[in-house]
Amino acid sequence: MLPAAGARLHRMRVLGHDVLRTPLDPGEHEREPFFWGAYVMAPWCNRLLGTPIDFRGSIIDPQPNFEDGSAIHGQVYAAPWERVADNAFAIEAGGDGWPWRYRVESAVEIDSLTLSLNLRLTNLSESTMPGGIGLHPWLAGSPVVTINAELAYASNVDPSAQPAPVSDDLDMRRPRRLTPGIDATWTGLARPPVELGWPDLGLTATLEAHGASHIVAASVTARSAIAVEPQTHAPHGLRRLLNRDPGGLDVIDPGAAIELRLAYAFRSVDGSPA
């Protein structure tokens, strides 16, 4: 874990194998924060349009921080967090284009070959706040992926994309590798929402994601890794909330919180815990 760089997971080794895209130099997380390890996204996930917008009289003005002109992955992915316990981290943030104060917490536990992360986003302001939370892991290599979902948004860039029944490259209900260049979101999730396999490493993993209603997945061939991201809403979640479309941000009352509880259960390829 790197508290100074978004309390992100720098490295995760299972049976001697790295399963995250981990840089040799941890400082690379600060130079290129979007493409290494696994980091928390809050108070929104994926993209917002990088233009001012009114939410119940409060002006949200997210600053574009990505090459497509969007405001991507929230505000805490690379900020310094505080270690509040041996296995827990927290940050209080807000302002800077987001007119509410909020707190994000991450608690990590390891039990044999299961890694659990409990994430929470709390509204610290006196007015209602829109919000979302998620985890953005970059998985090393090209694992086989199963996404147990019946619906998909074909594009994470298009703010007008709507969920449709899965078909062709978006039907991930059987184990397969992501199509190169794909960047989409799945919803209508069954349990477990995600299964992973590294045949060359002799590993499989099952992801349980309580609180997640959407799974984003992207294959970026130049990075030699894929992203499979559990989160609480669809891309462009603020626009979807305002338009009353599916997949919008949650509405969080003052003092209230939303949670995302994740568990990655790894097994050896023969199906038994190592």
Keywords for this structure?
274 residues; mainly beta; Beta-galactosidase, Chain A, domain 5; 13-stranded antiparallel beta sheet; two-stranded antiparallel ribbon; 2 helices; 21 strands; 48% strand
Describe the structure.
With 274 residues, this protein is mainly beta. The protein has a single domain, classed as Beta-galactosidase, Chain A, domain 5 (Distorted Sandwich), CATH 2.70.98.10. The chain is 4% helix and 48% strand. The strands form 5 sheets. Strands 3, 8, 9, 10, 11, 13, 14, 15, 16, 17, 18, 19 and 21 form a 13-stranded antiparallel sheet that branches. Strands 1-2 form a two-stranded antiparallel sheet. The chain has a two-stranded antiparallel sheet with strand order 4-7. Strand 8 and strand 9 form a beta hairpin. The longest helix is centred in the last third of the chain and has 6 residues. The two termini are 23 Å apart.
